[in-house]
Design brief:
7-stranded mixed β-sheet; binds 4'-deoxy-4'-aminopyridoxal-5'-phosphate; Aspartate Aminotransferase, domain 2; 10 helices; 3-stranded antiparallel β-sheet; about 15% strand; alpha/beta; Aspartate Aminotransferase, domain 1
């Protein structure tokens, strides 16, 4: 097998040991004579996976029974609607902090459902930072405050959480969940598509505080109510069994790595390797984010012109470094370095960046 360094933004790199384990177990899961793909979601084997994955996630997030963990479908995009459907009754309004393309999407969807306001936006600076506390104007009666912890497209990340007082704080953590220790108790609800740090596409994780759940609207179709999925432990209908099985293996891998503190330390080092090249390139590489707001997951930068960017992507790909083109809406380069990317991959990219600059600078 050739060595590939996978910098895709999502679906993204998975730990090799997890893929090997899944391959090993595929044909005959725990001597059942069949694969997990073929088993009933009501079987004891799948029940055990479902329960273990939820327990592992709670353990990593440092929460107990005051929170529920759900495995849902429809992606983070469905959460953009499900959140206001459940928590934005007529007459109420929610606050959104707009930090990039994904926060915009979440906000636009809330507006389709009910009333929402922009409590801050960094659009004016081209989404190079998250807002400072002084620039956040919260509605005292906001039903909740929504943030996007990491903007996957722009490559900016919240490094200290905004102070929202007593208002319920909700976060889309699709692209940085479990990348660092989390004060989970600060959040009323967290959601994340799995396809970056947690596993394959097809399952979305929701972590919801029980007291917040109690305030949800009950006047909704069954599948759109968080309460349905809490009551049925994510087994109301047929769940994406293979995706949840994979998430469970990835969660086990995170625990084996030493948990979130160890993962965070690795992630800091990896990101620093790339930002260091940008910062010492004399302007050849220009990082998109302001320094204090840089994402440790998606490193975004520009080259002097688009032709060079194209060549950069092509040459990198020929050397086995794939997935480096920036999102089609913003261009440039984006190196996504989620938990499963190791230091070696970042070292290889840093080396290539230096070499490319020498030849083209
Ligand atoms: N939020 C963020 C921060 C994302 O990065 C993405 C996907 N890249 C989404 C939401 C949308 O997720 P999905 O494709 O699972 O609906």
């Amino acid at each position: 097998m050739s060595t590939i360094y996978n910098f895709n933004a999502g679906p993204a790199i998975l730990p090799a040991s997890v893929l090997e384990r899944a391959q090993h177990e595929l044909r005959d899961y725990q001597r059942c004579g069949m694969s997990i793909l073929e088993m009933s979601h009501r079987s004891p084997e799948y029940e055990a996976i479902n329960a273990e994955a939820a327990e592992r996630l709670k353990r990593l997030l440092g929460v107990g029974n005051e929170y529920h963990v759900l495995f849902l479908q429809g992606g983070a995009s469905l959460q953009f609607a499900m959140l206001p459907l459940n928590f934005l009754p007529p007459g109420a309004s929610a606050d959104y902090l707009i930090t990039g393309a994904w926060a915009e999407k979440a906000y636009e969807e809330a507006l389709r459902v009910g009333q929402a306001r922009e409590a801050a936006s960094t659009a004016a600076n081209g989404y190079r930072s998250v807002p400072s506390q002084a620039d956040i104007a919260l509605d005292p009666h906001a039903a909740y405050v929504h943030i996007t912890s990491n903007e996957t497209i722009q490559g900016i990340q919240w490094h200290t959480w905004p102070d929202v007082g007593d208002r319920p704080l909700v976060a889309d953590m699709s692209s940085d969940i479990l990348s660092r220790p989390l004060e989970t108790q600060r959040f009323a609800l967290i959601y994340a598509g799995a396809q970056k740090n947690l596993g394959p596409a097809g399952v979305t994780v929701v972590v919801i505080r029980d007291s917040f759940l109690q305030s949800a609207s009950s006047n909704l179709p069954t599948m759109l109510r968080y309460a349905t999925h809490v009551k049925n432990r994510s087994l109301y209908n047929t769940p994406p069994v293979f995706a949840v099985y994979m998430v469970n293996l990835v969660l086990g891998w995170i625990e084996e790595q030493g948990g979130l503190a160890a993962i965070a330390e690795r992630n800091q080092r990896k990101a620093a390797t790339l930002y260091q090249v940008i910062d010492t390139s004399g302007g050849f590489y220009r990082g998109h984010a302001e320094r204090d707001h840089r994402s440790l997951m998606n490193v975004t930068f520009r080259l002097p012109d688009e032709a060079l960017e194209k060549r950069f992507v092509t040459e990198a790909s020929a050397r086995g470094m794939v997935g480096l083109a920036g999102h089609r809406s913003v261009g440039g380069i984006r190196a996504s370095i989620y938990n499963a990317m190791d230091q070696e991959g970042c070292d290889a990219l840093a080396e290539f960046m230096i070499d490319f600059m020498r030849r083209n600078g």
